[in-house]
Amino acid sequence: MTPSSLPTLIEPLIEKTGWNRMAKREKLMIGALLVFTGSIFLFHFLFSPLLDSRQRLHKSLSNKKVELQDIRNLQKEYQSLQHQTGNIQERITKRPKTFTLFSFIEQQAAAAKIKEQISYLKPSEIEGDGPLNESRVDMKLQRINLRDLVNFLKGLESPKDVVFINRISIQEHGKDEGYVNAVIQIITFREA
């Protein structure tokens, strides 16, 4: 097919559409309509997908920036916890080798003069994933006044010995005014 044969192929098509019989005004309107339709076609099938993909890329990039910031925050928190763990391990090594949480609690109860109010002491061990295991004692105190309970709690929590109160529940003791019952969960750590 040569360039000179192209007009001969288009001429019958133009003749069938009636293009030659149209007025100049009609030809301009149809031409404008074709340009308008072509530009909508180009926008819809070419530019619109490009704009959508660019918008998705920007949204994905901003989400990734937020995720990266979250990862950095978690990294700082992890490093802080690692430092605290090292600090706890250092304090644990300074405790006497015979230290047990159970005996520590009994010593503090004797010092606060509340041994008679102890209903039970339940020790347990929880193995950790890291270098430390958790030792825990659940205890219940019955019919204890608030002053004695506070004195006991002051002696019980010991950052030096790595002993902490994890949970405490206090309720009034029946009809005895000024007395309470307390359930306390005390924890410490030991090297695995």
How does this model look, in words?
- The chain has about 190 residues and is α+β, with helices and mostly antiparallel strands.
- The chain has two domains: about 5-60; about 100-190, Alpha-Beta Plaits, CATH 3.30.70.60.
- The chain has helices at about 5-15, 25-95, 100-110, 145-155; strands at about 120-125, 130-145, 165-170, 180-190.
- A four-stranded antiparallel sheet has the order 1-2-4-3.
- The longest helix has about 70 residues, at about 25-95.
- It is rod-shaped and about 115 Å long.
- The model has no long low-confidence stretch (mean pLDDT about 85).
Keywords:
2 domains; 4-stranded antiparallel sheet; single chain; 192 residues; alpha+beta; 55% helix; 4 helices; Alpha-Beta Plaits
First-last Cα distance: 87 Å
Number-wise, the strands total: 4
Oligomer: single chain
Strand order of the largest sheet: 1-2-4-3
The H-and-E topology, N to C, reads as: HHHEEHEE
Task: Using the coordinates above, name the CATH class of the largest domain.
Answer: Alpha Beta
User: Helix count, per DSSP?
Assistant: 4
Question: Can you name the CATH architecture of the largest domain?
Answer: 2-Layer Sandwich
Task: Please indicate the percent range of residues in DSSP E strands (runs of 2 or more).
Answer: 15-25%
CATH topology title of the largest domain: Alpha-Beta Plaits
Number of domains: 2
